[in-house]
Amino acid sequence: DEMDVDTIWMDGEFVDWDDAQVHVLTHGLHYGSGVFEGARCYDTEEGPAIFRWEEHLERLFQSAKPYEMDIDYTKEELTEATKALIQRQELPSCYIRPVAFYGYNSLGVSPADCPTRTAIAVWPWGAYLGEEALEEGIDVMISSWRKHASSQVPTNAKTTGLYVNSMLAGEEARRNGYAEALVLNKEGNVAEGPGENVFLVRDGEIYTPGLSESILDGITRDSVIEIAEDLGYTVHDNVSISRGELNTADELFFTGSAAEVTPIRKIDNVVIGDGSRGPITEDIQSRFFDIVERKTDAYDEWFEYV
Ligand code: PMP
After folding, report:
1. Is 295 a catalytic residue?
2. pLDDT tens digits, one per residue of 244-257
3. What is the interface pTM, i.e. ipTM, of the complex?
4. CATH number of the domain enclosing 71
């Protein structure tokens, strides 16, 4: 809960949580012109450790590019601010939300006159889809909404406005009694979850939609591919996955900074595998948690210690 935190970093300054506000005519509010990140900082024996912070920062700056947005702070300054937020609020672990957006000036669609605003918030956040989801898996609904195509918007840029699609899909799923949605792309192939990439296991090998399938280039996706390969699995990460392949999968799971590695046990009420977390999912998931909790020395280059 947000009770344990009282400070947000905004445009170079630490401000009280309640004072971190913007004008109602902020460009980003009207046109969705913001870019953001979601990263996790884990509780380890070495203190709080941010998982793949470099990659998250890099993606934030890359996301800004198609929108010609100049973030006024360097990666070093954003890192310093983030670490300070974690330290001063004494958080052993947390979620980290950096956001940069066009602010208030004139209200035309062109952001040319708008300042770029930048903020970072951190707060304690447990398992995104619930602790039980990590063990039992979740029920997922194929959304009636399609993912926006990469020919319409840069889907590899983590842009605030694009998340109306995620919101529609996720809420539709929850209204229908599912924990989460799975969104197909314009071609009708598997794209991703509202805030997760998706993996499929068949005959002992692992498949995940390629970057040309209108997905976000997930950092957990990238990590899981490397972890799975290091565990000896064959990973096909540049494929199209048809809707029908979901039903016949041996295992399915979601990955994401928030969702971590979450098994999927049903798609549209069709049971996947035997309806519980599959063995390969479990293998990768347990390795993932050993890594992020620093129970192994391996992959140390993935961590930014606070
Ligand atoms: N796809 C979408 C649409 C997302 O919002 C996210 C979460 N950032 C992901 C995939 C997973 O990406 P990551 O592993 O970098 O969090």
Report:
1. no
2. 999 999 999 999 99
3. 0.99
4. 3.30.470.10
